[in-house]
Amino acid sequence: MKQNVVFKDLAGKSVFVTGGGSGIGASLTEGFLAQGAKVAFVQRSDAGAFVDRMAETYGAAPLFLPCDITDVSALKDCLSQAAARHGPVSALVNNAANDARHTLAETTVEAWDKGMAINLRPHFFTAQAVAEGMRKLGGGSIINFSSISYMMGNGGYPGYMAAKAGITGVTRALARELGPDNIRVNALMPGWVLTERQKELWATPEDLKAHLEKQCLKHHLTPEDVVDTTLFLASDASKMMTAQALVVDGGVVMTG
Questions:
Q1: Which end is more exposed in the chain, N or C (fewer Cβ atoms within 10 Å of the end residue's Cβ)?
Q2: Which residues are paired to 144 by β-bridges?
């Protein structure tokens, strides 16, 4: 991974990433390792090969904790294990998500609840789990991955969009509640990041062309494109930023 910037204060920090062994999450884990942070991550699928590669590249392996994030008790236990190994979590990155396509007509109550259990609920309960440790540290940073999809009014996954909109609301509510403890909470809103999953399932030449036409910057986003912004939000370089929703999408949606 190309390292564009160094945030010296991230060295040695305890970082926790959900979904940190593949796609955008793997790039986030690597980005923090490159800064010298101590990284733990959860993922449901096996990430052993990724861990080995990171250890070979950086001389320090991330702590991989297999976990289904819909199991809140198991997720909180993983956070406790990470804190026991690396110290209280000072930067929490809620990255994991599932953007499976679905329609209004076909969505059952069970499917809706499962989507929220993956795409929204963990953001709240991981924050609940790390808040006390961050207080003892004198502060911390929580970074919640949302999406520009709901800002664009996309079709094809209404439950996912509802969850992503909810993340922005949760982010602002938690920023208000945790601010007196110097805990910052921000949302990061990526555009269409071309992970292997996206390229395999949905990135047709026609859709790629149409989306690129909406961007001001005429380059497709890769997972690495959101890493530096995440590092910035985790670092003291953004120490007076909280309750914000930062868009990294090449200039599709515009805020302000």
A1: C
A2: 94, 187
Which residues have a catalytic role annotated?
160
Q: What are the angstrom distances between the C-alpha of 99 and each of 1, 102, 177?
A: 26, 9, 29
What is the C-alpha separation between 75 and 89, in angstroms, rounded? 14
Other CB atoms closer than 10 Å to residue 246's CB: what's the count? 19
Q: What is the pLDDT of residues 179-221, one digit of tens each?
A: 999 999 999 999 989 888 888 887 899 989 999 999 999 999 9
Token couple for 96: 């994991």
pLDDT in tens, 6-37: 999 999 999 999 999 999 999 999 999 999 99
Integer angstrom CA distances of residue 195 from 23, 29, 108, 160, 242: 5, 15, 28, 18, 28
Cβ neighbours of residue 141 under 8 Å, at least 6 residues apart? 90, 91, 92, 183, 184, 185, 186, 233, 234, 235, 238
